[in-house]
Design a protein that fits this description.
single chain; alpha/beta; Spore Coat Polysaccharide Biosynthesis Protein SpsA, Chain A; 4 domains; eight-stranded parallel beta sheet; elongated; disordered C terminus
């Protein structure tokens, strides 16, 4: 408790109170006029949970009797829909509960079924005097199951065969369309359901009276019974009609008072929720009951209405779980300012409350086996997104609100704590493959200028068949003297790892430190003398300096990706360094030879990200890493968007290989040695955002498929906004704005460059997803070299390099337009769904824009940029 402190307890208390306030406000009681009288009738379908007439699963007589006993406390009559498959028991059982029955015969155009229903209805009506009305068919004309002539014949047969008044049930507009039908019935059984018409709740009573009076005017003197009138408690919004328990309660109270004042005869749609109706009416079809499927009333007929009666329980659960999470965090982070702790504790509570709310939404639904399978997959996806959100927030807090950095290393010459002593011999290994010779020679010239007393440089050219590429480099090394050695390997396995392992075998035996440098890097002359002294501490196994880039100025695409790369070295590596968990990179890295060669046996040739894999193994040895956040060398960026994507695909695929090869070390604790808990955290959560990109692609595919269902089968598909897409898009948005926030504080670039970096990062979302999938499906892929100094592609190539992303974006936009056409611009859920689809397209559109920028001549892009930002908003870089 003392570690949390008073400020920590105050933060936790404020957030818990805010959480309780949220639950209270969103579930505050709603006022509505009460109804204290008797209800005339319910539509009665006694199907229980798991029962479905489409699967020949019907309620038993005892279940029917139990339901009749329950509703007899509220109503004086019930209306049924069929007399087959045990439903003929309703009338005799209802008689024991003093209930009148409006008997239904289900007509669907199948002659055998229709004859059986009609004959049985006649038989039941004759045998039970409590059958006071008969309904032959339910919306049979609306569904076009049979002709009006056929229906009239059935009506006539029932009318002459028993004593009760006979009708058929149809919506109001069908009755207006068929006056000949009105002449054949004793009364009109009319369905008026404002929800299906998209009428807002506040206008629903006027709408019912309007349609009721319209029928009275058209057919004066004809008795009218509203055989279905009601409102659903859940499901999608239809036009201006919003579902919900409060809205259902308000509708029924208003209607019952209206019906009493206007002497309207009616049956409330319906007694019990019927989950099986989701298969042909969508989610909303299951939620018309006054009672839920477990026979519990959803709301009272008097007093206030509440959307969710059990909200205090959920508020308590979310507050307790959130409080535990907050206290665990607050107890161990005194280094973070009060504002930072407040931010992250609030994020913890937000995630917990969101999860509880989503769980309530999911588990309150009536789920079938397929829906349960989808739910499990959805929950697993949400878990990934939650961890991603919390890890991103944790990084923001530690980098923006920390009072000090615990592990900050300066270049040796500027570090007053460094210990003097002799400097060891260093062997620098530079692998090349099909590289432009002038570029490699630039790197070698920078190494020749090193202000370090004892080093060698080994250039290993592997698998380059064109002599014009490697011969000039060989000649330069020969002329440079004994420090430079050149090796050409015509056919050599293992790609870059194989070349580096070859170099190890030819390293001077006296060399204690191995350095690795990419062949396009030009390094500062003080690189080695500034960093090598850290190896005087025997626990240090490798020292890493940032990757940086050159020759990007004046090229919009290269400027974007330069700053996208910079974000990791100014943000991610700084954060990881606090817990000795940095990623080793295949350039600007220095490694203790005994650890690399003797203890680990060299580079792993099975992994195409051999550098990160080696860094992980070095940390498993239990030693330390050092990250000095100062640029000592700069390389070249990819020249095209396709090269940029190939490079990122390689990184992601390699990371997936590492996870496959080291999952035990990453996930399973060890009693002795191995990675620390903090190191495992950084490696897992560091790669997790890439998994979130995969989730985004999965959600994209799912939303496109769901959109097809919404357009083609609107009664079977609802808008799954919050349950399906909101979390994924929320994490995407948090990552985007969180990155801009971190960039502003930690990366020395202008606002324009920050936006360009964010655009470039989003452009790789689909590539990252492909890399993860490839790594999961296939454990071995060839090494993908990142080409440098490529020729500039044509504008058409800009489209071709992003054709997959462009296609997906086009599909999402087409789906959004199709939704608006199918549902209309006035439908709130349709507008939100279309907005979701457009938002999902942002990473794919980013890929197309980035690719076009890469293909665009610099002068053309600069003219466009001046139009977009005419007042010189580019600004000047601000160094932290």
């Amino acid at each position: 408790m003392s570690r949390i402190g008073f400020s920590g307890l105050l933060i936790a208390a404020i957030i818990v109170l805010a959480n309780i306030g949220y639950w209270s406000w969103t579930n505050r009681p709603q006022q509505e006029e009460s109804y204290l009288g008797e209800i005339k009738g319910f539509s009665f379908s006694p199907f229980q949970r798991g029962q479905d007439p489409q699967k020949d699963k019907y309620p038993s007589p005892s279940e029917i009797n139990s339901d009749l006993a329950l509703v007899s406390k509220e109503v004086r009559a019930v209306r049924t829909y069929s007399v087959l498959n045990g439903m003929d028991e309703v009338a005799p059982l209802a008689r024991h509960h003093n209930l009148k029955v409006t008997l239904g015969a289900w007509i669907n155009g199948d002659p055998d079924n229709d004859k059986a229903e009609v004959d049985q209805a006649i038989k039941v009506a004759r045998a039970n005097r409590n059958v006071d009305h008969v309904v032959v068919g339910n919306e049979a004309l609306l569904r076009e199951d049979l002709s009006i002539e056929q229906l009239i014949q059935y009506i006539r047969k029932v009318r002459r065969s028993q004593r009760a008044p006979v009708s058929t049930a149809e919506p109001w507009h069908v009755w207006l369309k068929h006056p000949e039908l009105v002449r054949e019935v004793d009364y009109m059984a009319v369905h008026i359901l404002p929800y299906w018409e998209g009428v807002p709740l506040d206008n629903s009573m006027d709408y019912i009276l309007q349609r009721y009076h319209e029928l009275q005017t058209a057919y004066p003197g004809k008795k009218i019974v509203l055989s279905e009138v009601g409102w659903p408690s859940a499901g999608k919004t239809r036009g201006g009609a919003e579902t919900g328990i409060v809205n259902q309660g308000r509708f029924l109270r208003q209607f019952l008072n209206l019906a009493r004042e206007n002497k309207i005869d009616y049956f409330i749609m319906e007694a019990f929720d019927q989950p099986y109706k989701q298969s042909f009416e969508g989610t909303v079809g299951a939620y018309w009951g006054v009672y839920d499927v477990d026979r519990k009333p959803k709301f009272p007929m008097s007093g206030t209405l509440k959307e969710y009666k059990r909200w205090p329980l959920l508020a308590t659960i979310s507050s307790v779980v959130g409080l535990i999470g907050m206290l665990l965090y607050l107890a161990g982070h005194e280094n973070v300012s009060a504002r930072g702790r407040l931010f992250y504790a609030g994020l913890i509570q937000f995630v917990v409350t969101g999860s509880v709310w989503m769980g309530r939404e999911l588990f309150d639904q009536y789920l079938g086996p397929m829906q349960i399978a989808v739910l499990i997959a959805l929950l697993l996806a949400q878990l990934v997104l939650i961890i991603t959100l919390l890890s991103e927030g944790f990084q923001i807090v530690e980098l923006l609100f920390a009072r000090r950095f615990k592990r900050r290393f300066l270049p040796f010459a500027a570090d007053p704590t460094a210990v003097p002593g002799p400097l060891p011999k260093v062997s620098i290994h530079i692998p090349t493959c099909n590289e432009p010779p002038h570029m490699v020679i630039q790197t070698l010239e920078s190494m020749a200028a090193q202000e370090y007393p004892d080093f060698e440089v080994l250039v290993i050219d592997n698998n380059t068949s064109d002599e014009a590429l490697w011969k000039p480099v060989e000649a330069w090394c020969a002329a440079a003297g004994s420090k430079f050695k050149f090796f050409h390997l015509p056919k050599w396995p293992g790609f870059k790892s194989g070349a580096l392992n070859f170099a190890l075998k030819h390293t001077d035996p006296s060399a204690e430190i191995i350095g690795v440098l990419d062949s396009d890097y030009v390094v500062r002359s003080d690189w080695l003398k500034s960093l090598i002294p850290y190896f005087r501490r025997p626990e240090v196994n490798f020292v890493q300096a940032p990757q940086d880039h050159r020759e990007w100025q004046g090229n919009a695409f290269k400027e974007m990706i330069n700053w996208e790369y910079a974000g990791f070295f100014h943000i991610g590596m700084v954060h990881r360094n606090e817990r000795n968990a940095i990623i080793q990179h295949g350039t600007m890295t220095l490694i203790r030879r005994t650890a690399l060669q003797d203890q680990l046996g060299g580079w792993a040739e099975w992994c195409i990200c051999e550098d990160a894999e080696l860094g992980l193994r070095l940390l498993e040895l239990g030693g330390e890493s050092v990250y000095v956040q100062e640029v000592f060398g700069r390389g070249l960026t990819p020249d095209s968007f396709s090269g940029y994507k190939r490079q990122r695909f390689r990184w992601v695929y390699g990371a997936t290989q590492i996870i496959r090869g080291h999952w035990r070390a990453l996930l399973l604790p060890r009693s002795r040695g191995g990675l620390t808990l903090a190191q495992r955290y950084h490696f897992v959560t560091g790669w997790l955002p890439w998994l979130a990109d995969l989730m985004h692609v999965v959600f994209t595919v799912g939303s496109l498929a769901w959109t097809i269902g919404l357009v083609v089968a609107p009664k079977r598909f609802d808008f799954p906004l919050t349950l399906f897409l909101a979390p994924a898009l929320g994490v995407l948005g948090f990552k985007f704005f969180g990155a801009l926030w971190l960039y502003r504080a930690r990366v020395p670039c202008t606002p324009w460059q920050r936006i360009g970096a964010a655009l470039a990062a989003m452009a790789l979302s689909f590539t990252v997803a492909r890399g993860i999938m490839a790594g999961i499906i296939s454990p071995q892929k060839p090494f993908l070299r990142t080409p440098k100094c490529e020729d500039r592609p044509a504008l058409m190539q800009g489209f071709l390099m992003a054709w997959e992303e462009t296609l997906i974006a086009a599909l999402l936009w087409a789906a959004a337009i199709a939704i608006m056409v199918a549902y209309g611009v006035l439908n709130l859920e349709a507008r939100l769904w279309a907005l979701m689809l457009f938002a999902q397209s942002i990473p794919y559109v980013s890929a197309l824009v980035t690719s076009l920028i890469a293909a665009m001549p610099p002068a053309t892009f600069e003219r466009i940029r001046r139009v977009v930002m005419p007042f010189g908003a580019r600004g000047q870089p601000q160094h932290p």
